[in-house]
Amino acid sequence: MLIITRNSRDYGPYDEATVAAFVEDGRLLLNDRARDAATGESGTVKEMLLRKGIRPSVKNNGSLMRQLSHVGRDFIFPHEDMEHHSLFEDKRLLVLAIVGLSLSVIMLLPIGGLLVFYVVSLYFATIWGLFFAWLFPTRQVNTKTTVWTFFLTQAGVFLIFGVLHNLNFFNLFTEASFPVSIIGYILGVGLTEEFTKMVPLIILQHRSREPMLPQTMVYYGLIAGIAFGVFEGVQYQTTINIHADYTTAFLLNIARLTSLPFIHAIWCGIAGYFLGMAGLYPRYRHALWFLALIVPATLHGFYDSFAGVAYIVSLFIALSSVLLLMAYMRRSGQLRERLRTNE
């Protein structure tokens, strides 16, 4: 005798022949859970029946055409749902279309040269943006501000790195031998790039008509970081990477579209966290602004410093950056409680 379990509820007991008949009629599935009523031994229906030498076969409900007819035309082609566009109310459809078809649409466009690299980078940036929106949802996150933050960051990147970057004195130290090069990578590369990514966040916070939650600022920081990663990714793909062999260039290009922009996003997410706290607790804004810049710049500088010396250390720094952001988010309530308390 067998006891059948479905959705944590027991049915039976039934003798093995009855269970086999249920399987043949489609009322039970071979991978439903079952146990022997006498011994307590458990397994799937299939396993328990095989122990008794029973091999049930599910009966077909008529021919293929009969089965298709029973499924029904409206379920095979739900024309009413498609004609009335009710499917477009499901945001999952929009996400699926963007992720799955955008690059195919791009292939139809008459573009070439540098624009190809930029458009493909935008495609991957969109995927990251959808992921971040799912990961850090708040009522303050919206598409318009996301797009505004992304392209404002890109405008700032082109301005600062096209006009001011070569004037940075500390960049001279990046050419020095390790560990002196750390100075240049932190004070030159780190501070410059992280400040560039912070500017749109500062503008966003200043223009906001309500206090921005730290989690909201983290999200927009991630978007600004991805925007910077697109600029840098295109730059490397069209200059340095093209001189590598095919296999190496392929790997580097994929990294510049995915992993490396993600690291930039994490650093700017950290900046967004402290800027968000500074907006809520302005009495401590100088310290929080300082942390918003120096923490990402230091992580960035050390990452770049070790990239050419011991890349495994850079990977550890990247992982530590992710863990640090998550730790900040986890302790957000405790920090807010401390900042509410006046000394």
From TrEMBL:
Instruction: Report the transmembrane regions from the record.
Output: 93-109, 115-135, 147-164, 176-196, 217-234, 254-275, 287-303, 309-329
Q: What is the lineage of its organism?
A: Bacteria, Pseudomonadati, Bacteroidota, Bacteroidia, Bacteroidales
Q: Which PANTHER family match?
A: PROTEASE PRSW (PTHR36844)
Is Transmembrane set as a keyword in this record?
A: yes
Record the organism.
Answer: Hallella multisaccharivorax DSM 17128
Q: Does the keyword Signal apply?
A: no
User: What are the UniProt keywords, alphabetically?
Assistant: Membrane, Transmembrane, Transmembrane helix
Q: Name one GO molecular function term.
A: peptidase activity
**Domain of life of the source:** Bacteria
Q: State the name under which the record lists this protein.
A: PrsW family intramembrane metalloprotease
